[in-house]
Amino acid sequence: MFSNALPGLTDELKQVSQEMEVLLPKEWNRGEVGSIIQAVLAGRGKGYRPSLLLLMGRLGPDYPECKKRLYRLGALVELVHMASLIHDDIIDDSILRRGNPTIQARFGKDMAVYAGDLILGQVLTILLQDNLQQSGLLIAKTIKDMCQGEIGQAACRYRTDITDKEYYDNIYGKTASMFVNVCKIGGIESGCDEETIQCLGDIGLHLGYLFQIRDDLLDFSANNLEDGKPARMDFQEGIFTLPVLHTFLDPACRGGLEELVKLAKQGRLSPADYTELDRLILSAGGFDYAVSMAEQHRAAIGQKLSELPPSKTVDVIRYLVSLLELPKLRIGR
Amino acid sequence: MFSNALPGLTDELKQVSQEMEVLLPKEWNRGEVGSIIQAVLAGRGKGYRPSLLLLMGRLGPDYPECKKRLYRLGALVELVHMASLIHDDIIDDSILRRGNPTIQARFGKDMAVYAGDLILGQVLTILLQDNLQQSGLLIAKTIKDMCQGEIGQAACRYRTDITDKEYYDNIYGKTASMFVNVCKIGGIESGCDEETIQCLGDIGLHLGYLFQIRDDLLDFSANNLEDGKPARMDFQEGIFTLPVLHTFLDPACRGGLEELVKLAKQGRLSPADYTELDRLILSAGGFDYAVSMAEQHRAAIGQKLSELPPSKTVDVIRYLVSLLELPKLRIGR
Asked: Which residue, A166, A285, B50, B308, could crosslink B74 as a Cys pair with Cβ 3.0–4.6 Å?
């Protein structure tokens, strides 16, 4: 995915991967702990978050000297992301993640809780050891925001009156906060001025929203093999995203949708119900609404990028954003 | 429990409690997060860990100036302990903790995972913000040791060949590491010399072992109301403690015990099986063995305390240790 964008980025991501292995204590290689950590590392994603951190780190005057810190912080951010995925799997009771068995499916719920905590404990160790105070505080904020986003989302489950504001608050915590903070960390470590750091944070914010809304839309696309999850899991689990929220607002569709919510809550949705769900959302223009919101965030990113001095790095970031294509929803069309 | 020991300690524990409330962000008071945190705070224990930290903190020359830091670190240690209890409950699928409903029973598994992580995120924030590097690293080590102890214990479940060494490794992580590190933190913050800090760590180590072996024995006492858990849960869950390990070594009892292990694994232990379990352990001298091990650790604490210059504080620590009475096991006797 990124190798086309910039050969240098691929090399730097390799440095981040090496750093991750360095950060994980050798003694963990033995026994159960080692097996879990290896399984987690093997299931790693594409490294979108460290990539952003590295790219933003190129924008400041101190870039050449701060490279090592950027690799280390990229690794720490990826470790936090991994820990959060492990803990999320416990809750979803997921069997698969990105097509691979989850830690809890392979090793049990116990192991998943402690493997995540163990990684967080190691992140804490490195942040203190390396005196990464300023960036460390942003990582700590990210961890707390992620929890609050998940708690907020859980509190909204199956509620048919949740607002766009509540939805945005939840995805800010779940996803966007991490994007904001990795962008800011890149700017801080490379010595950007306050105004630029704020601008990078704003880019991260809109990118996080775009990323999550796209993810929500992917959940509605019929063959969602990318992360190994079956389609329309969110609705089944009572997590209502923009297409659904918009449909609640349509008086002609609300009643029908509420019926489906009742069935979802009882775990009794049939294939015909899913077709009806798609029909209602299409009829209310729910998909188009979510797509238009996503495009608004994409436009905001473009606007913020244009405020930065033009550079090869800015072009690469623009290219990375363009890779986040929205799914074509062909269902019922 | 502690108010008899020393009125001053009770006052200082109040300072720790206040500090805990200060450390928990005001915005958490709203909504679900607030309800969870309040429930966790309400279910707090007696504060054995912060008490130890405070007492050890009286032994160094800098005691008067480091008081505020001791209160803060006492609060952080208690928060880490709380987070670990919340996460342990997820695994035990416990309904009660100290007679109160657990977080997962009241709010669901999702909330329990994230409430624990949220607390850890806040601990990380404060450690970085207050530049508590040296003590922070010990807290980070404790978090990792606790995870490794639990992972090690899970890997030993239902194994009939586990050794005393493996048992001790697991309880070191689960329990003793925290005791070692709170004692060291007290010594470090109050400016004790290296040798004294090592001695305080050793006291913590043996106290941790004594504490856990006592807890294991309490699990065998018929009316274990203290922490709201039913008796002999450990054996049922395949967590074999010293009385059981010792019984495996007796050729006359091993066969019968292995039969009970099979039943435990299948969740099919009857009341008669529990009576048989007690009979086998008594016959092999398993309870006496565990008691003698606990008393060895108590003696080692006494030895280490006698190496410190005599003081009122040392007497108080000695008194606190004496409060850890071993249960009278009357079963079948």
From this structure: B50
